[in-house]
Design brief:
The protein is mainly β and 139 residues long. It has one domain: Metal Binding Protein, Guanine Nucleotide Exchange Factor, Chain A (Beta Complex). 5% of the residues lie in helices and 37% in strands. It has 1 helix and 10 strands, in the order E-E-E-H-E-E-E-E-E-E-E. The longest helix has 7 residues, at 29-35. The chain is globular. Bound molecules: zinc ion (2 copies). Residues 7-9, 11-12, 74, 76-77, 79 line the site of one zinc ion.
Protein backbone atom coordinates (compact mmCIF):
# COMPACT_ATOMS: atom_id res chain seq x y z
CA UNK A 1 0.00 0.00 0.00
CA UNK A 2 1.20 3.50 -0.84
CA UNK A 3 0.26 6.33 1.50
CA UNK A 4 0.68 10.01 0.76
CA UNK A 5 0.52 12.98 3.08
CA UNK A 6 1.12 16.68 3.32
CA UNK A 7 1.26 19.54 5.79
CA UNK A 8 -1.49 22.10 6.37
CA UNK A 9 -0.13 24.61 3.82
CA UNK A 10 0.84 21.98 1.26
CA UNK A 11 4.47 23.06 0.98
CA UNK A 12 5.68 19.61 2.06
CA UNK A 13 4.44 16.29 0.71
CA UNK A 14 5.56 12.73 1.37
CA UNK A 15 4.97 9.21 0.25
CA UNK A 16 5.23 5.90 2.08
CA UNK A 17 5.49 2.79 -0.04
CA UNK A 18 4.72 -0.35 1.91
CA UNK A 19 2.30 1.13 4.40
CA UNK A 20 2.07 1.95 8.06
CA UNK A 21 1.87 -0.04 11.29
CA UNK A 22 1.32 0.32 15.03
CA UNK A 23 -1.02 3.29 14.93
CA UNK A 24 -1.57 4.70 18.38
CA UNK A 25 -2.57 7.76 20.30
CA UNK A 26 -0.14 8.89 22.97
CA UNK A 27 -1.42 11.05 25.80
CA UNK A 28 1.96 11.99 27.30
CA UNK A 29 2.79 15.62 28.03
CA UNK A 30 5.36 15.83 25.23
CA UNK A 31 2.91 14.61 22.59
CA UNK A 32 0.36 17.13 23.81
CA UNK A 33 2.86 19.91 23.18
CA UNK A 34 3.80 18.60 19.75
CA UNK A 35 0.23 18.10 18.59
CA UNK A 36 -1.33 20.98 20.49
CA UNK A 37 -4.13 18.69 21.64
CA UNK A 38 -5.11 15.90 23.97
CA UNK A 39 -2.88 13.30 22.35
CA UNK A 40 -0.89 12.29 19.33
CA UNK A 41 -2.11 10.17 16.43
CA UNK A 42 0.96 8.49 15.02
CA UNK A 43 1.90 5.39 13.05
CA UNK A 44 5.25 3.79 12.42
CA UNK A 45 6.50 2.84 8.98
CA UNK A 46 5.76 -0.82 8.34
CA UNK A 47 8.68 -3.21 8.10
CA UNK A 48 10.40 -2.69 4.76
CA UNK A 49 8.31 0.40 3.98
CA UNK A 50 10.12 3.17 2.13
CA UNK A 51 9.55 6.79 3.06
CA UNK A 52 10.41 9.71 0.79
CA UNK A 53 9.68 13.40 0.58
CA UNK A 54 7.97 14.18 -2.72
CA UNK A 55 7.80 17.95 -2.32
CA UNK A 56 9.33 20.68 -0.21
CA UNK A 57 11.84 18.77 1.92
CA UNK A 58 13.87 21.97 2.07
CA UNK A 59 10.94 23.48 3.99
CA UNK A 60 11.20 20.85 6.73
CA UNK A 61 12.57 21.78 10.13
CA UNK A 62 13.90 19.04 12.35
CA UNK A 63 13.65 19.16 16.11
CA UNK A 64 15.71 16.57 17.94
CA UNK A 65 15.21 16.11 21.66
CA UNK A 66 17.81 15.05 24.19
CA UNK A 67 16.88 11.38 23.79
CA UNK A 68 17.67 11.37 20.07
CA UNK A 69 14.01 11.21 19.18
CA UNK A 70 12.50 14.12 17.38
CA UNK A 71 10.05 15.32 14.82
CA UNK A 72 9.93 17.08 11.52
CA UNK A 73 7.59 19.96 10.93
CA UNK A 74 6.79 22.51 8.26
CA UNK A 75 8.60 25.79 8.82
CA UNK A 76 5.74 27.68 7.19
CA UNK A 77 2.58 26.27 8.76
CA UNK A 78 3.93 24.30 11.73
CA UNK A 79 2.34 20.94 10.92
CA UNK A 80 4.17 18.09 12.62
CA UNK A 81 4.69 15.56 9.83
CA UNK A 82 6.94 12.80 11.02
CA UNK A 83 8.76 11.23 13.92
CA UNK A 84 12.54 10.99 13.71
CA UNK A 85 15.03 8.70 15.34
CA UNK A 86 18.73 9.36 14.80
CA UNK A 87 17.82 11.57 11.87
CA UNK A 88 15.71 8.99 10.06
CA UNK A 89 11.96 9.14 9.53
CA UNK A 90 10.41 6.33 11.58
CA UNK A 91 6.73 7.20 11.30
CA UNK A 92 4.17 9.79 10.32
CA UNK A 93 1.45 11.77 12.02
CA UNK A 94 -1.90 10.29 11.00
CA UNK A 95 -3.50 13.72 10.68
CA UNK A 96 -1.21 14.63 7.79
CA UNK A 97 -2.07 11.51 5.76
CA UNK A 98 -4.28 12.10 2.73
CA UNK A 99 -7.30 9.83 2.78
CA UNK A 100 -7.19 6.40 4.38
CA UNK A 101 -3.82 5.55 5.93
CA UNK A 102 -4.67 1.84 5.90
CA UNK A 103 -4.39 1.60 9.68
CA UNK A 104 -6.61 2.57 12.57
CA UNK A 105 -5.64 3.53 16.09
CA UNK A 106 -5.12 0.34 18.09
CA UNK A 107 -4.13 1.74 21.46
CA UNK A 108 -4.16 4.72 23.77
CA UNK A 109 -0.80 4.90 25.51
CA UNK A 110 0.52 6.86 28.49
CA UNK A 111 -3.03 7.39 29.68
CA UNK A 112 -1.75 7.87 33.23
CA UNK A 113 -0.09 11.05 31.97
CA UNK A 114 -3.18 12.42 30.24
CA UNK A 115 -4.29 16.01 30.73
CA UNK A 116 -6.91 16.66 33.43
CA UNK A 117 -9.30 17.83 30.71
CA UNK A 118 -8.75 14.76 28.49
CA UNK A 119 -11.72 12.39 28.25
CA UNK A 120 -10.84 9.18 26.44
CA UNK A 121 -13.73 7.47 24.65
CA UNK A 122 -13.87 4.29 22.65
CA UNK A 123 -13.11 0.64 23.05
CA UNK A 124 -9.50 0.24 21.94
CA UNK A 125 -6.99 -0.82 24.62
CA UNK A 126 -5.53 1.72 27.02
CA UNK A 127 -2.12 1.39 28.56
CA UNK A 128 -0.88 3.25 31.61
CA UNK A 129 2.47 3.70 29.91
CA UNK A 130 3.88 2.52 26.59
CA UNK A 131 2.82 -0.37 24.42
CA UNK A 132 3.69 -3.78 25.83
CA UNK A 133 6.66 -5.37 24.10
CA UNK A 134 5.77 -7.52 21.08
CA UNK A 135 2.62 -9.13 22.44
CA UNK A 136 1.58 -10.28 18.97
CA UNK A 137 1.02 -14.00 18.74
CA UNK A 138 0.94 -14.55 22.46
CA UNK A 139 -2.60 -13.44 23.15
ZN1 LIG B 1 3.20 23.60 5.65
ZN1 LIG C 1 3.74 10.69 23.80
Amino acid sequence: MTVTGECFCGAIQYQVRGGLANARSCHCSRCRKVFGGAASAFAELADLAVFRWTRGEQNLRRYIGASGWGLGFCRTCGSALCGLHRGKVVGVTLGTVNGDPGVELTAHIYVNSRAPWDHIDGTIPRYAEGLPEQSQGSD
